Amino acid sequence: MTNSTIAGLSLDANNEELTTKAFTELRKIKSVTLATVHNGNPAARIIDLMLAEDNRLSFLTGRGKAFYHQLKNNPSLAIVGMGSDYIMYRVSGKIRFTDSRDELDRLFLANPVMNDLYPGEKRYILETFVMENGTGEIFDLSQTPPRRRRFSFGKATITAPMFAVNDNCIACGQCAEVCPVGAVTLNETLFKIDHTQCLECGACYEICPSEAITNQQSSDIQATRDVPKGPRALLSPRTPDPLQN
């Protein structure tokens, strides 16, 4: 029987519940991975999340650090953390520098260990920045199959699921056959994808003979249609449907 929960929440949890859960758990994890762009290349480091409040994540960094200058050049930031329970929380969006000493003092009050690193007024080499608008997801790998739910906060809108089935579906069933976790099932005359269960591996997208499965996030994956499909040879021959001849 498939688990109907994700990270302790109902699969039907609303956006506010998902956001609150993700922010709370990221703060518990505290040391999370942050990714930026540096000269067109990815750059990542582990940084402590200083505060997680309603629709707002707060961090700080030194003005001399490459991280600081990367954010000044491109405020786009991706955040990911995973606890010992194998539940991943991911957030992305644009950040804003607060330019506020009061905000920095507030973060030091919430994280007193910072006084050991930057005692007294030496803290003011640091700058605080916040993410107030963004999208995210909870990916629960503690169960099989894993479960995924997406959320948004601030003025951002929820990112669409990676794959969807359109009206070109001929109900051949090849997508369901190659799905590793059974996320693709027949819904009356067309197949559908359970987005809370989908691994987004792309197997159904590659195998579909009628291009009925569309990628809703990026055109980058379009090239995979032209890649030789090794797994196809492993599929058992299908009985022709006389209605399609």
Write up this protein.
There is one protein chain. With 245 residues, this protein is an alpha+beta fold. It has 2 domains: 149 residues, Electron Transport, Fmn-binding Protein, Chain A (Pnp Oxidase, Chain A), CATH 2.30.110.10; 71 residues, Alpha-Beta Plaits, CATH 3.30.70.20. It is built from 6 helices and 14 strands. It starts with a strand and ends in a 30-residue tail after the last strand. The C terminus is likely disordered.
Key attributes of the depicted protein:
4Fe-4S ferredoxin-type domain-containing protein, elongated, metal-binding, alpha+beta, single chain, Fe-S_Ferredoxin, disordered C terminus, Pnp Oxidase, Chain A, iron-sulfur
Question: How do the strands and helices of this protein lay out in sequence?
Answer:
Elements: E1 5-6, E2 9-10, H1 15-29, E3 31-38, E4 41-48, E5 51-53, E6 56-62, H2 66-73, E7 76-82, E8 87-97, H3 101-110, H4 114-117, E9 126-140, E10 147-153, E11 163-165, H5 174-178, E12 184-187, E13 190-193, H6 203-207, E14 213-215
Antiparallel strand pairs: 1-2, 3-4, 3-7, 5-6, 6-9, 7-8, 8-9, 9-10, 11-14, 12-13
| CATH topology descriptor of the largest domain | Pnp Oxidase, Chain A
**Major sheet:** 8 strands, antiparallel
The CATH class label of the largest domain is Mainly Beta
Please, how many helices? Answer: 6
Poorly predicted sequence stretches spanning 5 or more consecutive residues: 228-245
Q: What structural category do the secondary elements indicate?
A: alpha+beta
**Coarse shape:** elongated
**DSSP strand tally:** 14
Separation of the first and last Cα atoms = 38 Å
Named CATH architecture of the largest domain: Roll
Region (Disordered): 218-245
Keywords: 4Fe-4S, Iron, Iron-sulfur, Metal-binding
GO molecular function, one term: 4 iron, 4 sulfur cluster binding
Organism: Desulfovibrio ferrophilus
